[in-house]
Amino acid sequence: MMSTSALDGQLTDLLANTGAIVFYLLVWALVFAGTAVFLGVFIPFITGDSLLFGSGLVAASAANVDIVVLMIGTGLAAFLGDQVGFLLGRHFGRGYLDRRGGRRTRAAIVKTETFYRKYGWWSVVIARFMPWARVFVPVIAGVGRMNYYRFLSSNLVGALAWGVGLTLTGYFAASLPGVKSAAYVIAGVFIAASIFFGGRTWLADRAENRRDADGDDRPDGPADTPADGPAAG
């Protein structure tokens, strides 16, 4: 697991090496790409909860990072990412989802479809806090021809609750006396877990895709023929 001091050093180094403007743009780009281009499927640790929480930690300890600018930009990036996913699903249809990853990913898509059918408007909000659903629900809503303005409203609520809410959680957790160390431990757990599960899924999908390709390349064997029966009289 990533130690508190290691996480603190990495976050500080990132800001020191990029500067505040590039830091903002990098965080916002990763949040946007997490859903807009499916980046969050295999590397949720740099597009999801841990990124938002960690950026809030940085803002609390860095004088040149404005938490207001950071959280507004993060909320907007989250909103626009889901809007792009929704429009892609509406334009390209179910086939767009079928081409995403291996069997594990396709199984997750089926589960997310059930989740969307069950919760409707609320699925877009709730999915923000679920790594797999966060990536696929916007596209599935587009495929399912969800009313555009209903999606717009649910997307806005979800972006505020998740994008703004988690960023502020990291900021205040690091700012409150006595809980700063615990905040870094929490962020480290988020990041370590995301790396583990994201990496495991990526490797499993690659292995399944290879097996599928090997199966398609095998030559067809001879057709089975029934045993000869007794000659007709």
UniProtKB/TrEMBL annotation:
The keyword DNA-binding does not apply. InterPro entries: DedA-like, VTT_dom. Residues 56-171 form the VTT domain. Residues 208-233 are annotated as: Disordered. It is found in: Cell membrane. Residues 208-221 have a biased composition (Basic and acidic residues). The chain crosses the membrane at residues 20-45, 57-80, 156-176, 182-203. It is a multi-pass membrane protein. Belongs to the DedA family. PANTHER family: INNER MEMBRANE PROTEIN DEDA-RELATED (PTHR30353), TRANSMEMBRANE PROTEIN (PTHR30353:SF0). This is DedA family protein. It comes from Cryobacterium algoricola.
